Protein backbone atom coordinates (compact mmCIF):
# COMPACT_ATOMS: atom_id res chain seq x y z
CA UNK A 1 0.00 0.00 0.00
CA UNK A 2 1.08 3.55 -0.65
CA UNK A 3 3.91 4.77 1.54
CA UNK A 4 2.90 8.43 1.21
CA UNK A 5 3.17 10.35 4.45
CA UNK A 6 -0.22 10.36 6.16
CA UNK A 7 -0.16 14.16 6.50
CA UNK A 8 -0.47 14.40 2.74
CA UNK A 9 -3.97 12.97 2.85
CA UNK A 10 -5.01 13.70 6.41
CA UNK A 11 -8.68 12.87 6.81
CA UNK A 12 -8.68 10.50 3.83
CA UNK A 13 -9.31 6.79 4.33
CA UNK A 14 -7.05 4.46 2.28
CA UNK A 15 -8.57 1.13 1.31
CA UNK A 16 -8.53 -1.67 -1.24
CA UNK A 17 -11.84 -2.31 -3.01
CA UNK A 18 -12.83 -5.48 -4.86
CA UNK A 19 -14.45 -4.48 -8.17
CA UNK A 20 -14.96 -6.49 -11.36
CA UNK A 21 -12.41 -9.12 -10.45
CA UNK A 22 -9.59 -6.72 -9.45
CA UNK A 23 -8.55 -4.83 -6.35
CA UNK A 24 -8.54 -1.04 -6.69
CA UNK A 25 -6.74 1.15 -4.17
CA UNK A 26 -8.48 4.43 -3.38
CA UNK A 27 -8.41 7.24 -0.85
CA UNK A 28 -11.76 8.71 0.17
CA UNK A 29 -12.17 11.97 2.05
CA UNK A 30 -13.31 15.56 1.98
CA UNK A 31 -16.82 16.41 3.06
CA UNK A 32 -18.56 13.68 5.12
CA UNK A 33 -20.42 11.00 3.19
CA UNK A 34 -23.60 11.66 5.18
CA UNK A 35 -23.59 15.33 4.10
CA UNK A 36 -26.17 15.36 1.33
CA UNK A 37 -24.92 18.76 0.16
CA UNK A 38 -21.43 17.39 -0.57
CA UNK A 39 -21.29 16.34 -4.23
CA UNK A 40 -19.11 13.26 -4.86
CA UNK A 41 -16.12 13.95 -7.12
CA UNK A 42 -14.00 11.22 -8.72
CA UNK A 43 -10.44 12.35 -9.56
CA UNK A 44 -8.54 10.18 -12.06
CA UNK A 45 -4.77 10.32 -12.56
CA UNK A 46 -2.77 9.73 -15.73
CA UNK A 47 0.42 8.04 -16.95
CA UNK A 48 2.92 7.41 -15.41
CA UNK A 49 1.46 8.49 -12.08
CA UNK A 50 -0.81 7.52 -9.20
CA UNK A 51 -3.56 9.24 -7.23
CA UNK A 52 -0.75 11.18 -5.49
CA UNK A 53 -0.75 13.68 -8.37
CA UNK A 54 -3.97 15.17 -6.90
CA UNK A 55 -2.43 15.90 -3.49
CA UNK A 56 -2.40 19.69 -3.62
CA UNK A 57 -5.63 19.96 -5.62
CA UNK A 58 -7.42 17.63 -3.20
CA UNK A 59 -6.42 19.75 -0.22
CA UNK A 60 -8.23 22.70 -1.75
CA UNK A 61 -11.27 20.75 -2.92
CA UNK A 62 -11.78 18.75 0.29
CA UNK A 63 -13.93 21.42 2.02
CA UNK A 64 -16.33 21.43 -0.92
CA UNK A 65 -16.66 17.86 -2.25
CA UNK A 66 -16.72 14.22 -1.19
CA UNK A 67 -13.50 13.13 -2.93
CA UNK A 68 -12.60 9.70 -4.29
CA UNK A 69 -9.00 9.30 -5.49
CA UNK A 70 -8.34 5.83 -6.95
CA UNK A 71 -5.34 4.29 -8.61
CA UNK A 72 -6.47 3.10 -12.03
CA UNK A 73 -6.29 -0.59 -12.86
CA UNK A 74 -2.63 -1.21 -13.73
CA UNK A 75 -1.29 1.74 -11.75
CA UNK A 76 -0.28 2.60 -8.21
CA UNK A 77 -1.40 0.09 -5.60
CA UNK A 78 -4.26 -1.27 -7.71
CA UNK A 79 -4.03 -4.70 -9.33
CA UNK A 80 -1.87 -5.05 -12.43
CA UNK A 81 -3.18 -8.16 -14.22
CA UNK A 82 -1.29 -9.53 -17.23
CA UNK A 83 -2.66 -8.26 -20.54
CA UNK A 84 -4.94 -10.56 -22.48
CA UNK A 85 -4.96 -11.28 -26.21
CA UNK A 86 -7.13 -8.36 -27.28
CA UNK A 87 -5.95 -6.09 -24.43
CA UNK A 88 -9.58 -5.86 -23.35
CA UNK A 89 -8.77 -6.06 -19.65
CA UNK A 90 -6.98 -2.72 -20.03
CA UNK A 91 -9.62 -1.13 -22.24
CA UNK A 92 -11.00 2.19 -21.11
CA UNK A 93 -14.38 0.46 -21.02
CA UNK A 94 -13.08 -2.01 -18.42
CA UNK A 95 -11.39 0.73 -16.43
CA UNK A 96 -14.54 2.87 -16.50
CA UNK A 97 -16.64 -0.08 -15.32
CA UNK A 98 -14.20 -0.59 -12.43
CA UNK A 99 -14.69 2.98 -11.27
CA UNK A 100 -18.46 3.04 -11.66
CA UNK A 101 -18.62 -0.08 -9.50
CA UNK A 102 -16.27 1.53 -6.98
CA UNK A 103 -18.45 4.62 -6.74
CA UNK A 104 -21.59 2.50 -6.31
CA UNK A 105 -19.93 0.59 -3.48
CA UNK A 106 -19.22 3.94 -1.84
CA UNK A 107 -22.87 4.92 -2.20
CA UNK A 108 -22.55 7.22 -5.22
CA UNK A 109 -24.73 6.37 -8.22
CA UNK A 110 -24.30 9.78 -9.82
CA UNK A 111 -21.16 11.87 -9.45
CA UNK A 112 -18.77 14.42 -10.89
CA UNK A 113 -15.62 13.30 -12.72
CA UNK A 114 -12.30 14.93 -13.52
CA UNK A 115 -9.52 13.08 -15.29
CA UNK A 116 -6.01 13.98 -16.40
CA UNK A 117 -4.21 12.23 -19.27
CA UNK A 118 -5.10 8.48 -19.24
CA UNK A 119 -7.62 9.13 -16.51
CA UNK A 120 -9.37 11.59 -18.80
CA UNK A 121 -9.62 8.89 -21.48
CA UNK A 122 -11.23 6.59 -18.95
CA UNK A 123 -13.57 9.42 -17.96
CA UNK A 124 -14.54 9.98 -21.61
CA UNK A 125 -15.49 6.32 -22.04
CA UNK A 126 -17.33 6.39 -18.70
CA UNK A 127 -19.47 9.31 -19.86
CA UNK A 128 -20.39 7.34 -23.01
CA UNK A 129 -21.03 3.96 -21.39
CA UNK A 130 -22.58 5.20 -18.14
CA UNK A 131 -24.30 8.52 -18.92
CA UNK A 132 -26.67 7.99 -16.02
CA UNK A 133 -23.70 8.16 -13.63
CA UNK A 134 -21.70 11.16 -14.83
CA UNK A 135 -23.19 14.53 -13.85
CA UNK A 136 -20.35 16.76 -15.10
CA UNK A 137 -17.03 15.98 -16.71
CA UNK A 138 -13.70 17.81 -16.65
CA UNK A 139 -10.91 16.64 -18.99
CA UNK A 140 -7.33 17.81 -18.59
CA UNK A 141 -4.85 18.07 -21.48
CA UNK A 142 -6.26 15.57 -23.95
CA UNK A 143 -8.50 15.44 -26.99
CA UNK A 144 -10.34 12.24 -27.98
CA UNK A 145 -8.13 9.20 -28.58
CA UNK A 146 -9.66 8.49 -31.99
CA UNK A 147 -9.13 12.10 -33.06
CA UNK A 148 -5.47 12.00 -32.09
CA UNK A 149 -4.72 8.74 -33.88
CA UNK A 150 -6.59 9.76 -37.02
CA UNK A 151 -4.61 13.00 -37.25
CA UNK A 152 -1.21 11.45 -36.63
CA UNK A 153 1.56 13.18 -38.55
CA UNK A 154 5.29 13.63 -38.07
CA UNK A 155 4.86 16.37 -35.47
CA UNK A 156 2.50 14.32 -33.32
CA UNK A 157 4.45 11.06 -33.69
CA UNK A 158 7.62 12.88 -32.64
CA UNK A 159 6.06 14.61 -29.62
CA UNK A 160 4.10 11.54 -28.47
CA UNK A 161 6.47 8.82 -29.63
CA UNK A 162 5.57 6.80 -26.54
CA UNK A 163 2.12 6.20 -28.04
CA UNK A 164 3.79 4.12 -30.72
CA UNK A 165 6.60 2.63 -28.65
CA UNK A 166 4.47 1.28 -25.80
CA UNK A 167 2.04 -0.47 -28.16
CA UNK A 168 4.71 -2.73 -29.65
CA UNK A 169 4.23 -6.43 -28.83
CA UNK A 170 5.42 -7.62 -25.45
CA UNK A 171 8.03 -7.89 -24.17
CA UNK A 172 9.99 -5.44 -26.36
CA UNK A 173 8.99 -2.10 -24.78
CA UNK A 174 8.83 -3.66 -21.32
CA UNK A 175 12.44 -4.81 -21.56
CA UNK A 176 13.67 -1.58 -23.10
CA UNK A 177 12.07 0.53 -20.37
CA UNK A 178 13.10 -1.94 -17.70
CA UNK A 179 16.74 -1.36 -18.54
CA UNK A 180 16.52 1.98 -16.71
CA UNK A 181 12.93 2.47 -15.60
CA UNK A 182 13.67 5.35 -13.26
CA UNK A 183 15.38 7.34 -16.01
CA UNK A 184 12.45 6.67 -18.36
CA UNK A 185 9.92 7.69 -15.70
CA UNK A 186 11.73 10.94 -14.97
CA UNK A 187 11.96 11.73 -18.69
CA UNK A 188 8.20 11.33 -19.06
CA UNK A 189 7.39 13.39 -15.96
CA UNK A 190 9.62 16.21 -17.20
CA UNK A 191 8.36 16.26 -20.77
CA UNK A 192 5.46 17.40 -22.95
CA UNK A 193 5.95 21.08 -22.28
CA UNK A 194 6.90 20.60 -18.65
CA UNK A 195 10.52 21.55 -17.99
CA UNK A 196 12.14 19.23 -15.46
CA UNK A 197 10.75 17.77 -12.25
CA UNK A 198 10.37 20.86 -10.06
CA UNK A 199 6.58 20.50 -10.17
CA UNK A 200 6.70 17.01 -8.60
CA UNK A 201 6.93 16.94 -4.81
CA UNK A 202 9.47 14.40 -3.54
CA UNK A 203 6.91 12.12 -1.81
CA UNK A 204 4.89 11.94 -5.03
CA UNK A 205 7.99 11.16 -7.08
CA UNK A 206 8.89 8.34 -4.71
CA UNK A 207 5.36 6.97 -5.08
CA UNK A 208 5.59 7.06 -8.88
CA UNK A 209 8.98 5.34 -8.79
CA UNK A 210 7.78 2.67 -6.37
CA UNK A 211 4.73 1.81 -8.44
CA UNK A 212 6.00 2.23 -12.01
CA UNK A 213 9.55 0.87 -11.79
CA UNK A 214 8.59 -2.80 -11.55
CA UNK A 215 8.05 -5.41 -14.23
CA UNK A 216 4.33 -5.48 -13.43
CA UNK A 217 4.00 -1.69 -13.46
CA UNK A 218 5.78 -1.30 -16.78
CA UNK A 219 3.78 -4.11 -18.40
CA UNK A 220 0.50 -2.66 -17.17
CA UNK A 221 1.32 0.76 -18.60
CA UNK A 222 2.18 -0.81 -21.95
CA UNK A 223 -1.11 -2.71 -21.91
CA UNK A 224 -2.98 0.52 -21.21
CA UNK A 225 -1.52 2.00 -24.40
CA UNK A 226 -1.92 -1.21 -26.40
CA UNK A 227 -5.61 -1.13 -25.54
CA UNK A 228 -5.86 2.49 -26.68
CA UNK A 229 -4.43 1.60 -30.08
CA UNK A 230 -6.70 -1.41 -30.58
CA UNK A 231 -9.86 -2.25 -28.66
CA UNK A 232 -10.41 1.34 -27.47
CA UNK A 233 -10.43 2.53 -31.08
CA UNK A 234 -12.99 -0.17 -31.89
CA UNK A 235 -15.20 1.06 -29.07
CA UNK A 236 -14.75 4.69 -30.11
CA UNK A 237 -15.64 3.96 -33.73
CA UNK A 238 -18.70 1.98 -32.64
CA UNK A 239 -19.85 4.88 -30.51
CA UNK A 240 -19.27 7.30 -33.37
CA UNK A 241 -21.17 5.13 -35.87
CA UNK A 242 -24.07 4.79 -33.43
CA UNK A 243 -24.18 8.55 -32.95
CA UNK A 244 -23.38 8.36 -29.26
CA UNK A 245 -22.00 11.55 -27.76
CA UNK A 246 -21.15 12.78 -24.28
CA UNK A 247 -24.39 14.17 -22.91
CA UNK A 248 -23.29 15.99 -19.75
CA UNK A 249 -21.62 19.41 -19.50
CA UNK A 250 -17.89 19.21 -20.26
CA UNK A 251 -15.04 21.51 -19.27
CA UNK A 252 -11.57 21.17 -20.82
CA UNK A 253 -8.25 22.41 -19.43
CA UNK A 254 -5.01 22.29 -21.39
CA UNK A 255 -1.47 23.62 -21.05
CA UNK A 256 -0.24 26.48 -23.20
CA UNK A 257 3.19 24.86 -23.47
CA UNK A 258 1.89 21.37 -24.20
CA UNK A 259 1.42 19.21 -27.26
CA UNK A 260 -2.38 19.44 -27.18
CA UNK A 261 -2.27 23.23 -27.42
CA UNK A 262 0.26 23.13 -30.25
CA UNK A 263 -1.29 20.44 -32.44
CA UNK A 264 -5.02 20.31 -31.66
CA UNK A 265 -8.07 22.49 -31.00
CA UNK A 266 -9.44 21.17 -27.70
CA UNK A 267 -12.76 23.02 -27.69
CA UNK A 268 -13.58 22.14 -31.28
CA UNK A 269 -12.34 18.56 -30.97
CA UNK A 270 -14.42 17.91 -27.87
CA UNK A 271 -17.36 19.81 -29.27
CA UNK A 272 -17.47 17.29 -32.12
CA UNK A 273 -18.08 14.37 -29.72
CA UNK A 274 -20.31 16.06 -27.14
CA UNK A 275 -23.95 17.00 -27.40
CA UNK A 276 -23.95 19.13 -24.27
CA UNK A 277 -22.09 22.39 -23.70
CA UNK A 278 -18.28 22.34 -23.90
CA UNK A 279 -16.32 25.06 -22.17
CA UNK A 280 -12.64 25.34 -21.36
CA UNK A 281 -9.46 27.32 -21.12
CA UNK A 282 -5.73 27.05 -21.55
CA UNK A 283 -3.46 27.51 -18.55
CA UNK A 284 0.21 28.63 -18.45
CA UNK A 285 1.61 25.14 -17.97
CA UNK A 286 2.86 22.06 -19.75
CA UNK A 287 1.11 18.70 -19.57
CA UNK A 288 1.08 18.06 -15.81
CA UNK A 289 -1.30 20.88 -14.96
CA UNK A 290 -2.66 19.67 -11.58
CA UNK A 291 0.88 19.55 -10.18
CA UNK A 292 2.24 22.58 -12.01
CA UNK A 293 -0.75 24.81 -11.18
CA UNK A 294 -2.70 23.20 -8.34
CA UNK A 295 -4.41 26.42 -7.23
CA UNK A 296 -5.57 27.31 -10.74
CA UNK A 297 -6.70 23.74 -11.33
CA UNK A 298 -8.71 23.64 -8.11
CA UNK A 299 -10.29 27.02 -8.86
CA UNK A 300 -11.30 25.96 -12.37
CA UNK A 301 -12.81 22.75 -11.03
CA UNK A 302 -14.77 24.52 -8.32
CA UNK A 303 -16.18 27.04 -10.77
CA UNK A 304 -17.25 24.41 -13.28
CA UNK A 305 -18.38 21.59 -10.99
CA UNK A 306 -20.34 23.89 -8.68
CA UNK A 307 -22.03 25.87 -11.45
CA UNK A 308 -25.75 25.70 -12.08
CA UNK A 309 -26.69 23.71 -15.18
TrEMBL record:
This is Alpha/beta hydrolase fold. One of its GO terms (molecular function) is hydrolase activity. Gene3D superfamilies: alpha/beta hydrolase. The lineage of its organism: Bacteria, Pseudomonadati, Pseudomonadota, Betaproteobacteria, Burkholderiales. Keywords: Hydrolase. Residues 39-164 form the AB hydrolase-1 domain. PANTHER family: EPOXIDE HYDROLASE.
Amino acid sequence: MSGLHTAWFEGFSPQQHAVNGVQLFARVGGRPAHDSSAPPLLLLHGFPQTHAMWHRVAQQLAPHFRLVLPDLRGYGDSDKPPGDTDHGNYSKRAMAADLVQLMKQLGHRRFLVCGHDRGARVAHRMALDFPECVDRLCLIDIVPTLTMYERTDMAFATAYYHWFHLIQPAPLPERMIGGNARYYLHAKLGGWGTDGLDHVEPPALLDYERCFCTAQGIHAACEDYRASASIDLQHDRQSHQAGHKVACPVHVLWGERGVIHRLFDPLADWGAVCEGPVTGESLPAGHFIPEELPEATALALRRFLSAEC
